[in-house]
Design brief:
four-stranded mixed sheet; 8 helices; 176 residues; 12% strand; globular; alpha+beta
Length: 176
């Protein structure tokens, strides 16, 4: 068959930004503004993947990571993560009951959240993220990884969004 029509254009794969977060981390709350700005600027051309890196010094961080996984299962991962990061002090003070309350506030199945936290169905996903983070040198949160470049936001967020934008712009330009 001799078909000389041009092949249909395939959409370019988005650039991928992995963000290792911890939900009792005040620096992650600050980083949320940068992540929102990146998501707004690039839309579906930048896939922002939330990765878990609960720190031992924060008592409720591991449960919060599991709760975010449950929110993702219920289709509200980002809104739930943003709600938690906006209320870090409340999570630190109130613990696991607060995780279920936030789910209820967002209209999620709070009973299923409670059950998920009890039965530990999301432990392996959180453990896998944490293990991968450790393997690539994540030591604190927030940490960003884009195109093999690791950027540590735990000491300072200054200049990180601009650096991520430079890398993303280059990756997207390389695709055209």
């Amino acid at each position: 068959m001799n078909d000389s029509s041009p092949a249909p254009a395939t959409p370019a794969a988005p650039a991928v930004l992995d963000v290792w977060f911890e939900f009792q981390c005040p620096d992650c709350r600050t980083a949320l503004d940068d992540v929102r700005a990146l998501r707004a600027r690039y839309g579906d051309r930048l896939e922002v993947r939330l990765r878990h890196f609960p720190l031992e010094k924060h008592k409720h961080a591991f449960a919060a990571a599991q709760a975010v996984e449950e929110a993702s299962e219920q289709g509200q991962g980002w809104p739930y993560a943003e709600a938690l990061l906006g209320r870090v002090a409340e999570l630190s003070r109130e613990g696991e009951p607060f995780l279920v309350e936030v789910a209820r506030e967002l209209g999620l199945d709070a009973e299923e959240f409670d059950t998920a936290l009890i039965d530990g169905r999301h432990i392996l996903a959180v453990d896998a993220d944490q293990a991968e983070g450790k393997a690539i040198g994540v030591r604190g949160t927030p940490t960003y990884v884009i195109d093999g470049t690791r950027l540590d936001g735990g000491k300072s967020q200054a200049g990180l969004r601009e650096r991520i934008e430079e890398i993303t712009d280059r990756l997207l330009a390389d695709q055209s």
